[in-house]
Structure formats: C-alpha cells, structure tokens
Amino acid sequence: MGLLILSGGAASAASDGASTPSVFVEAPSIVLGPVGQNEQVEHEFRLENRGKGDLLIEEVRADCDVVTGNLAGHRIGSGSSAVLPARWETGDHRGPMKRAIEVETNDPERPVVRLEIGAWVCQDFAVHPQSLVLSREAGSAVFSGTLSLLQCSDERLTLARVDASATWLRSSALPLGAGREGYRLTVIADGEAAKGGAVEVLSLHFDQGGPIVVDVPVMVPVASEGRTAEP
C-alpha cells in the first residue's frame, strides 16, 4: 500500500510539473545608445513561455514616468510569447538614466521578473561607445566596428576630420539618418598589419560653435600567439 501511495504522489507531482509555466526574457536589462534631451526612449521586451502550462501576466508595475503596454490579465500559451512595449521621455535630464519595470506572473519559480532600460542622455553631443573593440567576421581579412557621433542640441555639429594614431587604422563617415543629426563612423583595421592588443586612438575633430576634439581608444583583439585573433 505504501508503495502505491508514493507512486500516486509522484504521478501527481509529475502532472503538476507538466502544467507549470516558465517565463523567459532574453535581455531583461538593456542599455541604449545616446539620446538627446526631451526625446522619447522606446524599447520592446519579449516575454516567452517556455513551460507547459499557460503563463498569466498578473500585474505590470513600472517607474512613474514609464508608459507600458497593458498586458495585465494576458495569458501566454506554452511555446508562445508576447511583446511588452515601454517608453519614457528624457526631459531636461543629462547623463545616465535607468528605468525599471516589474512583471508579476504565475510562474512558481520566478513570480516577479524585473526589466531595466538604461540610456545616456546628452546635452550638446555624444560619442558612443566611448571606447571601441574591433571584431572580424568569419572569412573577412579586416577588423571593423562602428562609432556614433550624435548631435543633441540645436547647435549644428560638423565633423571636420578623423586622425588615427596608426597607419593601418582608417574610418569613413556617413550621416546618421532616420531623423537624427550626427554621423556614423565605420572604423576598419587591416588584419595583417594590425597589432593585436595594442590600444590606438581615433581623434575626432568637429565643430559645434567652436572646435572640439574627442579621442576614442580603439583596440584589436589579440590571440595567445601574439597575432590578431579570430572572433
């Protein structure tokens, strides 16, 4: 009898586990590139259900100035997902900003999921990232990366030239586009000539009501044998 009771209990537990939801968010914390003052920051989080039972979104709580989609009461079937949009306005803030959202679900292992959105708010201009590690795609002979130079005020930003501390490091610039003022720089290093592990410098010379120079450290990865590494 005891064995039968234990067997029945195990079967019941297995049955309960088979109907349990499991919430998953691939990137619960993100940091966006630079944005200007009084701009809207937007992002979409995808909530997945990797369990067997329906995932119920019981409540969505966010910082007071964050507007989110209304997913409270929404059910996500097994193997399905739902998108939670979020946005807020930067106002006259300057520097780093972070906002948080909490999603309460019926997942017994993870009843509350915390989501975070970060952004850097610039006043006049911003260079992103502030240091750059180049990478190489499979089959390519060169290393590359991108920099963004963003105009954040009404004062027009004009890129005059870019100087490199190494002859094997070069760049090309194009307008950012998509309604944003500034430039996107493609930085390229010759894989044969590049010195893996060395930190070189790109000097960005631009004008915004006067001459400005910003130095950006640039590095090519190094392999254990001292040659530039495959990514």
TrEMBL record:
InterPro entries with a match to the protein in the record: DUF1573 (IPR011467), Ig-like_fold (IPR013783)
Superkingdom: Bacteria
Record's protein name: DUF1573 domain-containing protein
Organism encoding this protein: Thioflavicoccus mobilis 8321
